[in-house]
# Entry
Amino acid sequence: MRIIRIAVMLLVLLSGLSLSFTQTEASGDVSAYIFNGERQHFNNQGIIKSGTTLVPLRGIFEALDADVKWNQKDKTIHASKGNTKVWLKIGSRTAKVNEKAFTISVPAQIKDNQTLVPLRFISQSLGEKVSWNNATKTVMIGNAEAGADPWLGQYYNPWYTGSGMLTDLYVYEKTPETISFVSQTGFRYDPTGGELYGYQMPWEFNDFYGKAYLLSDDSASFTSGSCKAILQLDGGNIRVNQVSSAGSCDFTGLGMYDGDEYSAYQKFR
# Structure
């Protein structure tokens, strides 16, 4: 079973799939998962612009098995999945699904050779389920449970909530011998040197990519430099056990603080 993580900059609400944001444009703060049966895909080119989350159309559509074609002459995109036909034009707020026109909140646009569209367009055009977890700043597109191996998915550590720190674990691939994961840590910081405090401070995120070797169906051994640990499935969640020594795994984001609470990752459902 194969699953590939897709991470993009998103900030949405479940109801409207958008949220006011103080910055005009930013990227890299939020993770997104595209579920398509047993697979997930990766792209990091999403942005937030004028309070609207924009995501790369081709990366997400192709992850959902849609065919995407670009017409350079008239700057239009034609996409299809099954009986669904989608049409977009760069700079236009009009989109069409099966020849039925509707208005999107922000025009389709090109940034760094990627066509970006409002996140809500994904559900409007392909009918995909979109859900939002505010605690972990994560959006899920598609059915996260369909065909998923127990290891695969997104996990977060609830004990850091409100502490100015976040730590997430994403298991994105499983083979008969290994699991591959991304451990993400986030810290609030003050770029002004003392003028901001608490929730005024922006986030800075760091990703560590690792691979652990399966010892059994529910345990895997991870080693990197001085860090040695056991990842243990526990009721659908993951615990980081037997860390080699205090602080030895801090650079990975795994078990950064001593104690069972901080080593336990709950699965996002």
Q: What stands out?
A: Residues 1-30 have pLDDT under 50 and may be disordered. Residues 57-63 form the longest helix (7 residues). The chain is about 5% helix and 45% strand.
